[in-house]
Amino acid sequence: MTAEVIVLALVASGFTAMASVAQRRAAAPAPGELSFSWRLVGYLIHRPLWFIGILCMILGFVFQIAALRIGSLSLVQPLIAIELVLVFAMIAFSHPRRVHARDWLAAIGMAVGLGAFLALARPRGGAMHASFSSWGLAALACLGAAAVLTAVAYLPGRGGARKAALLGVAAAVMFGFVAAVVKELSTHLSQGLPGIFGNWSPYALLLSGAVAMYLASNAFQAGSLAASQPGLTIVDPLVASALGVVLFGERIDVHPWAMVGEAVAIAVIVTSVVALARSPLVRQEAVEEVPEQEAVEEVPEPVAVEAVAAPALASRAAGALPASPAAPERAKRPTGARAMGRRRRVACDRLARRSAVPTTEPVGVVVSRVR
Q1: pLDDT at residue 175 above 50?
Q2: Helix/strand/coil (H/E/C) assignment for every residue in 235-289
Q3: 331: buried, middle or exposed (CB in 10 Å: 19+, 13-18, 0-12)?
Q4: Could you tell me which of 44, 50, 95, 305 has the fewest CB atoms within 10 Å of its CB?
Q5: C-alpha–C-alpha distance, residues 209 and 174, integer Å
Q6: Is the pTM of this model over 0.70?
Q7: Is there a contact between 74 and 244 (Cβ–Cβ < 8 Å)?
């Protein structure tokens, strides 16, 4: 049964990784003024990639429910944390660049640390349900923590990376709570539709899941995966495992030597996650669309020929410009911005004399044609 839980959790992790990559690429180009605004949702619903991320997340939830139905939170959620390694693998596959040795070392370190933690902690046991009062306290604690982190993220002076990191941790707290609700919901599947929808858990799942996804979308929009993914990867299983112990009475090995080994394994996991999130391949996700935006900003506004040529004609009428560029003047031609301005006026003057047909081409195109 443990092998089945591991397989189901890893499949869920794969779909969650695909959801993270798709949602990040869908939310990254969003304008900054949409940050933590419901208008961000309106922006995302026009991007098909966002719906692919939603579909992958739903499939991840399906396999997560199947895993939690026969396994404990303390076992399933740490396995889903392997998501970051899968995110790194997807980005490395889609961007054929050389992967540094330290990146592979970080990925291996995370896998080894996770395996060591599960081997030492040996999560087991647990009740099928928790009391309603316990659920209420857990919901207040998680929502409160997410609210505080979100408020700190939007304090003045917070840069994009810090904002993304704080929002990623806030989303991870809510995803940890979502995992606990999924565990509760999985125990009602055998009761059929009346048992499922007659219980509070599916409605709590929809509400908490929407909050978690909203926070995650804002984290992906605020910064790169290198900033948001470590918090999502580390905090989610920690919160879920804590809720498994508090709500369902799950147990892990708490002998002194076992706890020392668990602490070392967690330190290896955290170090590996941070190192992997700072990989150039992951950081590249933050700058993929910058060239396109810069190219759009550099397009000049259209200017009519009459608007450009009129000052030149008026200057000629006042005697400011000669009838034709004489040789002595060419010898004393000024340099720099002044010379460029004079050449542009002369070019527009020539074009105005050649044709009286107006045009809306940019000035740069007009000058280049005259040359």
Answers
A1: yes
A2: HHHHHHHHHHHHHHCCECCCCHHHHHHHHHHHHHHHHHHHHHHCCHHHHHHHCCC
A3: exposed
A4: 95
A5: 8
A6: no
A7: yes
Bridge partners (DSSP) of residue 124 are 251
User: Residue 371: beta bridge partners?
Assistant: none
- 137 vs 143: CA distance, rounded Å: 10
At which residue do the structure tokens 């980005």 appear?
91
CA dist 348 to 21, 120, 298, 326, Å?
50, 80, 22, 18
CA distance 156 to 59: 38
Query: Any residues with CB less than 8 A from the CB of 327 and at least 6 apart, and which?
Result: none
User: Are the C-beta atoms of residues 129 and 187 closer than 8 Å to each other?
Assistant: yes
Question: What are the Cα distances from residue 178, in Å, to 169, 203, 232, 243?
Answer: 14, 11, 13, 10
β-bridge partners, 251: 124
Instruction: Give tens-digit pLDDT for 112-147.
Output: 888 888 888 887 766 777 888 899 999 999 999 999
User: What pLDDT score was predicted for residue 310?
Assistant: 47
What one-character-per-residue DSSP string does 111-180 give?
HHHHHHHHHHH--B---S---HHHHHHHHHHHHHHHHHHHHHHTSTT--HHHHHHHHHHHHHHHHHHHHH
Q: Tell whether the model's pLDDT for residue 361 goes beyond 50.
A: no
The pLDDT assigned to 183 comes to 87
